[in-house]
Amino acid sequence: MGRQANHQISGEVDLQTIVGFETDEALAARAASDPAALGTLYERYLPAVHQYCRYRLNDDALAEDTTATIFLKMVEGLGRSSVERVRPWLFTIAHHEVVSAYRRRRSDVGLESVRDTAHGGPTPEELAVVAGDVAMLREQLARLTPAEQDVIELRLAGLSGPEIAEVLRQSYSWVGTTQHRAYTRLRGLMHVSIERSDGR
Description:
Layout lengths: L2 H8 L4 H5 L4 H8 L3 H23 L2 H21 L5 H20 L18 H8 L2 H8 L4 H11 L4 H8 L3 H26 L3
Helix pairs in contact: 3-4, 4-5, 4-6, 5-6, 6-10, 7-8, 7-11, 8-11, 9-11, 10-11
């Protein structure tokens, strides 16, 4: 039987065959010689990379410049060698560029929101809404360790646990533990801040 029949029997969906979808890795393999493939990768990742830069740097102009630098380095990297896993590779570049930009500017690192999909209980964002004070959330986020901030920000950018581990060069278990500790600390800090603001 042909390839399509095999997929029908196995129940797998071949998106590339059905709708012409190309994986990141297939596009990356062609990007050095095909501007269209490079453009597709750019469009696919621009929103997430730009949002990541904005969250980390809390400066729109600096985020724009840093995003441009990241994609320039993506183009250079794809021209030099093949890439097996595009998303963690690209966010490794993004992570290093954001750290460099942050060190140059020494600006505050802030996040607009945090979602906790792995553990129960109210998220820090929900607590901030109850408190009516997003500034309070930012203040508490700044009290996390740099490692905890890194994990949360990459999670917000859409990366999975294994991908975050690859970007930060840590184990998957380290990522899970760090994320859990960060959310636990944020909940505690937000609860204390809310209680103080209520005069309890």
